[in-house]
């Protein structure tokens, strides 16, 4: 009987984990900015991407490998910010499941104000994706415009995680 209870508990844990991977919060710029500021004492990797962006999709496996490598490090966190439209939320959820994305995914539902919030993240950002911004203790420490290789990602994390 004890074994049956343990097995049921494990199944429940895996179900809860799976449910977490198939939900996406949709937020506005101000909420994302607040989240970034709240991640004190951490190196925060924020990647802006879309399911329809080929370079974004190409780099995501590298991001997941690195995210999994640092998953147990309390001083590290990765957030994937989808710039897909809110009406495409189900496609984003399906994408997360199919690609086994392990980092937190947020849908930034603020396309109409892009010209307002993009320069707040980085004055040199022209709006193209993928873009990855690294924050340490809420302060921007690195901006990467374009696709990142696994090595570039790891080097930037190693340099700033200390």
UniProtKB/TrEMBL annotation:
CDD domains: TlpA_like_family (cd02966)
Transmembrane regions: none
A GO molecular-function annotation: oxidoreductase activity
Coiled coil, from the record: none
Keyword Signal on entry: yes
Signal peptide: 1-19
Domain Thioredoxin: 8-162
SUPFAM superfamilies, A to Z: Thioredoxin-like (SSF52833)
Gene3D superfamilies: Glutaredoxin (3.40.30.10)
Stated name of the protein: Thioredoxin
Highest taxon of the lineage: Bacteria
Keyword Signal among record annotations: yes
């Amino acid at each position: 009987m004890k074994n049956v209870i343990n097995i049921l508990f494990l199944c429940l844990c895996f179900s809860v984990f799976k449910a977490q991977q198939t939900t996406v919060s949709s937020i506005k710029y101000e909420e994302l900015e607040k989240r970034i500021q709240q991640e004190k004492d951490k190196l925060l990797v924020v990647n802006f991407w879309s399911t329809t962006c080929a370079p974004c999709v190409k780099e995501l496996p590298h991001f997941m490998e690195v995210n999994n490598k640092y998953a147990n490090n309390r001083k590290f966190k990765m957030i994937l910010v989808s710039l897909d439209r809110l009406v495409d939320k189900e496609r984003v959820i399906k994408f997360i499941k199919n690609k086994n994305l392990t980092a937190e995914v947020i849908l930034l539902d603020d396309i109409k104000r892009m010209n307002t919030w993009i320069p707040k993240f980085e004055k040199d950002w022209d709006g193209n994706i993928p873009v990855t911004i690294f924050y340490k203790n809420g302060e921007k420490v690195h901006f990467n415009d374009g696709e990142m290789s696994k090595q570039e990602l790891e080097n930037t994390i190693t340099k700033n995680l200390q």
